[in-house]
């Protein structure tokens, strides 16, 4: 089965940067679309970014567009989320998610999920 393990979360000051990693195992990574979601306290989980299994298309939530970059390294079975110009409102638990195939559209449902990693942005 697919297993996803996030890492790289932590505490950072507003305006700072952080890079999240998600290690994929159990299946053929290059066949899976990958996404990042986040959930702040008291709020619903929301889409952040995604990258298609082919690596040919990426999507971003309006709130992070221009600040965050999603990428994948198929040789390392890892997807990354580079987070720049962080804001306090970016504070949330960030989850890695995966689907076999798919387009990686922001509205897509994901079958596989990691345990989450906490990102806290202080003002």
Short description:
The chain is an all-beta fold.
Folded structure, characterized:
This protein has 123 residues and is mostly beta strands. Helices cover 0% and strands 51% of the residues. Strands 2, 4, 5, 6, 9, 10 and 11 form a 7-stranded mixed beta sheet that branches. Strands 1-3-8-7 form a 4-stranded antiparallel beta sheet, with no helix packed on it. The termini are far apart. The model has no long low-confidence stretch (mean pLDDT 96).
Strand proportion, as a percent range, falls in over 45%
Average of per-residue pLDDT values: 96
Could you say which structural class the secondary elements and strand pairing correspond to? mainly beta
Overall, the morphology is globular
Q: Could you tell me the radius of gyration in angstroms?
A: 13 Å
Distance between the termini: 40 Å
- How are helices and strands ordered from N to C? EEEEEEEEEEE
Sheet with the most strands, sense and barrel status: 7 strands, mixed
Unreliably modeled segments: none
The helix fraction, in percent, is under 10%
Tally of contiguous helical segments: 0
